[in-house]
């Protein structure tokens, strides 16, 4: 089922998510709905706060990047079929040089800016079956995970851009809060009932 995506300005996007247990109600259905919602909006990641749930869970599918001509065949291979659910995640290490990439967010439509992030991360999490993992990711996979991880920490990519860029985007951000954004997917805005 496709759920509405929560728009910029909603307090749920600023909450630090809480851990969940394997008996969380309708967990498998929730995960399926999150993937459906993400694909419907042509996203590569979606965090639970973006559908109104302040819990530590996000999903990613990096396959859309796997045919990018800007990437080496090795990088493309790392992204091919990289579809995962992260529950109760904790990034334990961020390493390497910071590099810029133009990011956007389904909760902040029509705003894109360069964001600097470290190139490699180590992350501990449990999957949808509550099997624990410790994985290392780099490049675009690390970036997608860092972006979604920020959501469960109450952080948005706009927090990581310069004050000048923030000022330049003020009108767009205010429009999102007022429901004056019109992406081609269902959204719920803080100052307007969903359309």
Automatic annotation (TrEMBL):
Its cofactor is Fe(2+). GO terms for molecular function: peptide deformylase activity. Fe cation binds at residues 105, 147, 151. Its EC number is 3.5.1.88. It catalyses: N-terminal N-formyl-L-methionyl-[peptide] + H2O = N-terminal L-methionyl-[peptide] + formate. The active site is at residue 148. Binds 1 Fe(2+) ion. Keywords: Hydrolase, Iron, Metal-binding, Protein biosynthesis. Removes the formyl group from the N-terminal Met of newly synthesized proteins. Requires at least a dipeptide for an efficient rate of reaction. N-terminal L-methionine is a prerequisite for activity but the enzyme has broad specificity at other positions. Belongs to the polypeptide deformylase family. This is Peptide deformylase. It comes from Flavobacterium agricola.
């Amino acid at each position: 089922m496709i759920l509405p995506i929560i728009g910029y300005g909603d307090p749920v996007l600023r909450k630090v998510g809480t851990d969940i247990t394997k008996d969380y109600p309708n967990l498998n259905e929730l995960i399926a709905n999150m993937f459906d919602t993400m694909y419907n909006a042509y996203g590569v990641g979606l965090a639970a706060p973006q559908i109104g749930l302040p819990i530590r869970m996000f999903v990613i599918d990096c396959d859309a990047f796997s045919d990018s001509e800007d990437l080496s065949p090795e990088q493309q291979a790392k992204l091919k079929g990289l579809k995962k659910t992260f529950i109760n995640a904790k990034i334990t290490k961020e390493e390497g040089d910071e590099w810029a990439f133009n990011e956007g967010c389904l909760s902040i439509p029509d705003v894109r800016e360069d964001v600097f992030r470290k190139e490699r991360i180590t992350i501990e999490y449990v999957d949808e079956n509550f099997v624990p993992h410790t994985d290392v990711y780099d490049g675009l996979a690390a970036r997608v995970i860092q972006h979604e991880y920020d959501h469960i920490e109450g952080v948005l990519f706009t927090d990581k851009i310069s004050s000048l860029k923030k000022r330049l985007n003020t009108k767009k951000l205010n429009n999102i809060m007022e429901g004056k954004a019109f992406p081609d997917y269902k959204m719920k805005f803080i100052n307007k009932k969903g359309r």
